[in-house]
Amino acid sequence: MKLFPWQKQKEFFTAPQKEQLVQAIRNAEMRTSGEIRLFVESKCRFVDAMDRAKEIFLQLGMEKTDERNATLVYVAVKDRQAAVLGDQGIHQKVGQQYWESEVKKMLLYFRSEQLTEGLCNIITDIGEALHFHFPYSAEHDKNELPDEIVFGR
Questions:
Q1: 59 Cβ contact list (under 8 Å, min separation 6)
Q2: Where are the domains of the chain?
Q3: How many CA atoms lie within 13 A of 86 on its CB side?
Q4: Does domain 15-151 match CATH 1.20.58.1560?
Q5: Residue 48 DSSP one-character state
Q6: 60 with 49: CB under 8 angstroms?
Q7: Confidence of residue 11 (pLDDT cuts 50, 70, 90)
Q8: How far apart are CA 126 and CA 34, in angstroms?
Q9: Is the CB of residue 90 less than 8 Å from the CB of residue 69?
Q10: How far is CA 10 from CA 3, 38, 54, 94, 123, in A?
Q11: Which of 23, 41, 87, 112 is the most interior residue, by most CB within 10 Å?
């Protein structure tokens, strides 16, 4: 899904890599009521990737989940910047140090030119944290946000 439909989408991933990432999101969300979104763009419009992540989080309506347990993984490929932003429900459970640790791990993968592997790894890690704090409930759980990758400019 593109944020602005008139923009030409950059190809950061092959078709199999895109499917691998979407499947990682689906697998992670299978065991939790939490939601994970992946936003990828070429360059970060802000000095701090977290500021951009906050803007995107709100544009995607991620603060509207029932339990406030949505998480955004943000990547600016050419700038080699990344951020992870969890809504207040999950953030209160795991804390800032958790997010910073996950970003550091992800950046190590990126330095090795393993973008897809790094993203799949962080999505899996976030899924585990969400499962621990917000386990899946067949009675109440619904997929509140799309699983597709969102591409910026």
A1: 3
A2: 15-151
A3: 26
A4: no
A5: S
A6: no
A7: confident
A8: 9
A9: yes
A10: 13, 15, 22, 33, 22
A11: 41
